[in-house]
């Protein structure tokens, strides 16, 4: 299939858990990445995450040291979106707040080439709403990775009613080039996987907060009884409780389905700073 554009250099905006993982996926697959964070501290955190993750790949024999070095050298870091002026494609992975994403997209629209595709890694916000803050909504698309991005194969490609068909085709081809399996879906909160997953995760938190079962027993039941790689509370710690709350809240507001009304304990834990693995403590404690 002839692609509308060749993608060799990409931008990633936001180097949290997802953005750093996505950066690694691109760089592992030979693309040059300009990775942008809001400040030097964010850049240092993102760089640390990438070094840690690729060190692990070296320890496990998946990369040799030369390949690790080459991978890391394909990434340049910046605190300014204006450094994305020459990239072919951008994926945004900043926190799940529409106004923040809208601001980033309006700025990207100003600095990026007119033919560049602007993608969002949003988990549940409206890609359509984000896209209308640009002068190129036809080139705005969702490209949703799963955590950990270097490991999980699925990419949800979200097309809005105005996304141009060749943009969807190019993002599907890009996902395949990254060794991922793309699925194409319309713009509805939660897309496919989160719409199905988060009702289950929320239910597990409710079972835990009502002392229906211990965290260990809840997690063991789903791992050992259903063959899931992680129990629901372990998975919430991986996703991050703040991210999980935002996803549930957005889906609840869109559908009014009580299944997605965030369990009160989630908010309490977030207020207390227990966000999961990234803060060292969530339902479990981490070193
Ligand atoms: N970053 C990079 N690589 C990682 C990783 C991480 N955070 N965690 C594990 N890995 C790699 C390991 O290096 C290892 O790689 P190799 O096979 O190449 O050696 C591989 O993953 C397996 O790791 P482990 O043997 O240490 O552990 P495991 O077999 O228990 O797998 C897991 C760990 C991949 C996280 C697995 O438990 C799993 O798939 N859990 C479910 C994760 C899940 O459901 N994610 C979706 C969350 S929802 C979401 O992301 C959507 C959203 O919008 C929030």
From TrEMBL:
Protein name as it appears in the record: 3-hydroxybutyryl-CoA dehydrogenase
GO MF, one example: NAD+ binding
Organism placement in taxonomy: Bacteria, Bacillati, Actinomycetota, Actinomycetes, Pseudonocardiales
Homology family: Belongs to the 3-hydroxyacyl-CoA dehydrogenase family.
Record bears the keyword Oxidoreductase: yes
Coverage span on the entire protein: 1 to 287 of 594
3-hydroxyacyl-CoA dehydrogenase NAD binding domain boundaries: 9-187
Protein origin, superkingdom: Bacteria
GO biological processes: fatty acid beta-oxidation
Domain 3-hydroxyacyl-CoA dehydrogenase C-terminal, chain residue ranges per copy: 190-286
Keyword tags: Oxidoreductase
The keyword Heme appears for this protein: no
């Amino acid at each position: 299939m002839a692609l509308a554009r060749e993608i060799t250099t990409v931008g990633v905006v936001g180097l949290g858990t997802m953005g750093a993982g996505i950066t690694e996926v691109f760089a592992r697959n030979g693309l040059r990445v300009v990775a942008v964070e809001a400040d030097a501290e964010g850049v240092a955190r993102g760089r640390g995450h990438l070094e840690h993750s690729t060190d692990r790949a070296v320890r496990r024999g998946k990369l040799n040291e030369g390949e690790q070095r080459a991978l890391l050298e394909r990434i340049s870091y910046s605190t300014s979106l204006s450094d994305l002026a020459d990239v072919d494609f951008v994926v945004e992975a900043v926190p799940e707040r529409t106004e923040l994403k809208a601001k980033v997209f309006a700025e990207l629209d100003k600095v990026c080439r007119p033919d560049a595709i602007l993608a969002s890694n949003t988990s549940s916000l409206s890609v359509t709403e984000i896209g209308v803050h640009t002068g190129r909504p036809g080139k705005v698309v969702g490209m949703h990775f799963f955590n950990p991005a270097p490991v999980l194969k699925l990419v949800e490609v979200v097309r809005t009613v105005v996304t141009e068909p060749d943009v969807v085709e190019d993002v599907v081809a890009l996902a395949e080039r990254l060794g991922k399996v793309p699925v194409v879906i319309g713009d509805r909160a939660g897309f496919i996987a989160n719409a199905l997953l988060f009702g289950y995760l929320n239910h597990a938190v409710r079972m835990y907060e009502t002392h229906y079962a211990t965290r260990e027993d809840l997690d063991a039941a789903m791992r050992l009884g259903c063959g899931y790689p992680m129990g629901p509370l372990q998975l919430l710690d991986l996703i991050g409780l703040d991210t999980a709350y935002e996803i549930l809240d957005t889906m609840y507001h869109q559908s009014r389905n009580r299944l997605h009304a965030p369990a009160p304990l989630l908010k309490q834990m977030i207020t207390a700073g227990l966000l999961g693995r990234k803060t060292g403590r969530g339902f479990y404690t981490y070193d």
